[in-house]
Amino acid sequence: METMLTIENLGKSFKETRVLRNISFEVRKGEIMAILGPNGAGKSTTIRNIMGIMYPDEGSITFHNYLDIPRNKIGYLPEERGLYKNVKIMDVLLYLAELKDYPLKKAKERALDYLEKFDLEGKENVPVEELSKGMGQKVQFIASIIHEPEFLILDEPFSGLDPVSQDIFKEEIRKLAEKGTAILLSSHQMNLVEELADRLFMINKGQKVIYGTMDEVKTEYANFKCTIRGKNEKSTLERLPEVQRVEQDGNTSILYLNNNVNPATWIKHLPEQLIINELNIDRVTLHEIFIDIATGKSGMKKVGESNA
Ligand SMILES: Nc1ncnc2c1ncn2[C@@H]1O[C@H](COP(=O)(O)OP(=O)(O)OP(=O)(O)O)[C@@H](O)[C@H]1O
What we know:
ATP-binding, P-loop_NTPase, Alpha-Beta Plaits, DrrA1/2-like_C, ABC transporter ATP-binding protein, binds adenosine-5'-triphosphate, 28% strand, transport
């Protein structure tokens, strides 16, 4: 896949404090690349450097190998929402399209089409200030893609959306990627990231901790876990082979297994006296990987130990 955006060894300090160190990743045509990290990790600072809102102290950011990033080819849904309040929705959208040199007739058609998709049909003459938070977010999303950008940055696009609207956003984001848009997605909603992202970059304290495809990350970081429903002593479960730790809630126990355990072999060695009403084996979720890596809670690879 063709590389669109390349970030190499990005470094940034605010006064004496270094908030980004050696950040390198790329975003390719037609992919959804997630940038993840705990609060204060450096995601927004990375995005602001890409957008030219601030400049890096070290490293480079190139678009199709050029240092000059053409603003009319980029779409940006910022974390801080804000549209001109007393202006009608259509006027805002056309104004923003015009700023990106996009043909107005086409922009109007696209705006009407998206307003319909987002359940805002007939609202084109409503002033922005009369919209609910979720409706305003939909309009801002349309504003970020009205000009058919090649590269799209979505900073927390799902916050404040109801589940139906989240699904509509998810579908539109997928469609944009299928049409070839390169998408950089920042979100704390791990389940949505897990469903959407092709690759991910996780940052903590300004440094890379994970970089790879969702499958690579799962294979490298997500061990298997076994959920057993049945009344068993926690200490009995903890003594089972290859069990890293056990979490118990009532009669439900989750056994986190060591790296490289083959669950088919492991399950054959479970003692017969265990009480098993139900048993499931899954890989741990992205949510659990995120928490484990950010907190160093389990025996999984911790921050700084990654060689990804
Ligand atoms: N303009 C600024 N001046 C000084 N420090 C800043 C500035 N902007 C960000 N920082 C600091 O840089 C670090 C990274 O912040 P950043 O906003 O990039 O984090 P983030 O990963 O986007 O967090 P969140 O998930 O909370 O949005 C934080 O320690 C923050 O306090």
